[in-house]
């Protein structure tokens, strides 16, 4: 498959479910004329509690589905999948650029920190495979990184529990161990899961206003723009791009929960359900 | 396949993940000499936010995996899967008895209520397909049933947030809509998800001591015993039965989270990982 030169092709954006819609928002804002196709693996969501082997396999199946439909660039919007699957997918599909959100998030945190102490909150899986820790230390060996899993935030975000006194108490309790583990030193906190920006206001209140919160969505959109520029694939069209939605489970819940993550309303008619579980992993 | 008459064969117990271990506990307690094989579909957990079509398909794949290994009876320990898959699986596999937890839970609640007002809390999927509501009204047309989803309880149970003032506040907020919707009348509340018994103490404090909590694990174990008796398949051995564990994702998280649900320690060596996602649905 050779897609080089076809700037009209969509950018493929892959996520475990709805959280990646925050990345889709940022890409649309930055590059409104690009066509986009979003794939949410809602039949197997969440990835954050699954093993690296399973997540890598799921990412390979999702990439295959998107690349078969022809895309010009692949964005892994899910932090957990970005943490393990960018390299394997880039090897499988050398003809298109594969980008994750961990690299851009690490970049942003390295730029944001002044006192050289960075914190990361993410899913169990992302924290335990040290993806952010390694990515940050590769960029700046002079910083310290402390990371902690906050799995409960995913459920809070999806249930629409985004603010208020009770949510603040929950967030406070979840972040206690991070603070205890040198987290009180940090001046920068990476929101290393696409769900966490929904709780940004409360996380900021709990961490204090001196701690900068890094959400990789905007930085990823910037990296996508650069990636397209470098390969001469920016869409030169002056009309707004199309957005297509693919899901692996029924669209009902996707439509309902998407409201917490996506700026525009998505209608059932815009969504197509596909099956990717039977895919082998080879291209 | 004909397994009739082979009482040494294990009972197959299928769940979306770890929650069904509460049902396994109850079966082991009631029938200590039975061999048991437990399958947790940890690669796709949770089921409670997935569509009925996907959950039915997953249950068919899990049943196929267990039945290929030869079992004498199949228990669907997951409420969400029980709600949709008992009938399709019984049709696919007429040679063995297929049992869910919804029927036994409905039985228990119909026996427990005195004032004829029953409440049900469960996952989104179980509530929206009206499984408990229908099962209860089939048994007693003279009762009223009110059901409400409490998806957040799954995350709390898995994270080990089982008691304390903060958990009580969360549970209180989750149950508010149930109480508002005639739930204040109920004298019986079905814990319609295997995760919820982990929060039993707090749920009881919030609902008040006059509300009986129904956990279908014990009733299901009783129904399993009856099912085996009826078909002459009770294991007559006097030595304790074996328990075998199968999972569809890596065993690490299963071992860790199982502590909140299973009475005994499970070691990594006892667990085998299998792949069921590639299975077609036919027997």
The coarse overall form of chain A would be: globular
Largest interface: A-B, 28 and 28 residues
What CATH architecture of the largest domain in chain A do you see?
Answer: 3-Layer(aba) Sandwich
Question: What's the overall average pLDDT of chain A, rounded?
Answer: 94
Q: What is the CATH first-level class name of the largest domain in chain A? A: Alpha Beta
Distance between the termini of chain A: 10 Å
Largest sheet of chain A: 6 strands, parallel
Give the tally of structural domains of chain A: 2
Number of strand segments of chain A: 10
| Poorly predicted spans of chain A | none
Record keyword descriptors for this entry:
homodimer, alpha/beta, Rossmann fold, 2 domains, 6-stranded parallel β-sheet, 11 helices
Structural overview:
Two copies of one chain form a homodimer. Chain A is an alpha/beta fold and 283 residues long. The first copy, chain A, is 43% helix and 16% strand. The first copy, chain A, contains eleven helices and ten strands. Chain A has a six-stranded parallel sheet, sandwiched between helices. The longest helix of chain A has 17 residues, at 52-68. The termini of chain A are close together. Chain A binds chain B through residues 42-45, 49-51, 53-54, 124, 151-152, 154-156, 158-159, 161, 166, 169-170, 173, 249-250, 252-253, 277-278, and chain B through 42-45, 49-51, 53-54, 124, 151-152, 154-156, 158-159, 161, 166, 169-170, 173, 249-250, 252-253, 277-278.
List the helices and strands and how they pair.
The structure is a homodimer of 283-residue chains.
Chain A: E1 11-15, H1 21-30, E2 36-40, H2 52-68, E3 73-76, H3 79-92, E4 97-99, H4 102-112, E5 117-122, H5 124-128, H6 131-139, E6 144-149, H7 152-159, H8 165-180, E7 188-192, H9 200-207, E8 212-215, H10 216-230, E9 243-247, H11 251-258, E10 271-273
Parallel strand pairs in A: 1-2, 1-3, 2-9, 3-4, 5-6, 5-7, 7-8, 9-10
Helix pairs in contact in A: 1-10, 2-3, 4-6, 4-10, 8-9
